[in-house]
Amino acid sequence: MADALAAMLPFAVGILISPLPVAAVIMLLVSDGGTRKATVFEATWLLVSFTVVLGVAALIDKAAPHTATGTPTWEAIVMLALGIVMLALALLVLAAWRRQRRTKGDLPIPRWMHALDGLSAAKTAGLAAVLIVANPVNASMLIAAGIALGRAQLPGDEDALTAVLFTVIASLTMLAPWAITVLSGRGAGLLPRMRHWLLLHNNALTFWMTLAFGLVFLVKGLRALI
């Protein structure tokens, strides 16, 4: 189990440094009924992330023979596809980052973040699910982690426990502002500054992350095929 978790941890880092989910939690916390909505967001995020990782692992575990060695062709193709998607995203983010640097200004807060103040609990849960499934960065990391877990071919209970540990570790940066607010009540002054920093450096963080993981996925896929 330890080896499987170690193989998954690099993908946890990709989720940890993804700024938009953290910014969304902060926006929820400073909105009306923020603590309740942020709690719904966190719970949905953890549940959906766990389900995706464990679901992919179950599919891989059934598809891959227990006696198989090396990386199968289908996994190499998946890695290549993830690498291409991440590198394409890196180019798009780089263009936005260069525009931001030319204007020397902050990026405007995305429209969907402005709408967080009026979200119901159900819509907040839906937002968390969308940020996981529709965000190519988070989705790629969860798929890659699920593949790594499935390839380890652990017993069912160890599969579930490893998926839980991965999900919690990958969500620590998003859980931090929620925990600060709920446990200490000291987020009022800190949260707006955190949100400002995340939005200001969103493009830079996303570019370097997508570039690095895009190259990692691409090299893994090419090495397996060659």
Walk me through this protein's architecture:
The structure is a single chain. This protein has 226 residues and is mostly helical. It has one domain. Helices cover 83% and strands 0% of the residues. The chain is built from eleven helices and no strands. It has helices at 2-16, 19-29, 34-63, 73-103, 111-114, 121-133, 136-152, 156-170, 172-184, 187-200, 202-225. Helix 7 packs antiparallel against helix 8 (156-170). The protein starts with a helix and ends with a helix. The mean pLDDT is 80.
Characteristic terms for this protein:
GAP family protein, Gap/Sap, transmembrane helix, 226 residues, mainly alpha
Please state the CA-atom Rg, rounded to the nearest Å: 18 Å
Number of beta strands: 0
* Quaternary structure annotation: single chain
Overall geometry comes to globular
Distance between the termini: 29 Å
Protein name: GAP family protein
Pfam family, one: SfLAP
Transmembrane segments: 6-31, 43-64, 76-97, 127-149, 161-185, 197-219
Keywords: Membrane, Transmembrane, Transmembrane helix
Give a brief outline of the structure:
83% of the residues lie in helices and 0% in strands. It is mostly helical and 226 residues long.
Q: Which helices and strands occur, and which strands form pairs?
A:
Layout: H1 2-16, H2 19-29, H3 34-63, H4 73-103, H5 111-114, H6 121-133, H7 136-152, H8 156-170, H9 172-184, H10 187-200, H11 202-225
Helix pairs in contact: 1-7, 1-8, 2-3, 2-9, 2-10, 3-6, 3-7, 3-8, 3-9, 4-7, 4-11, 7-8
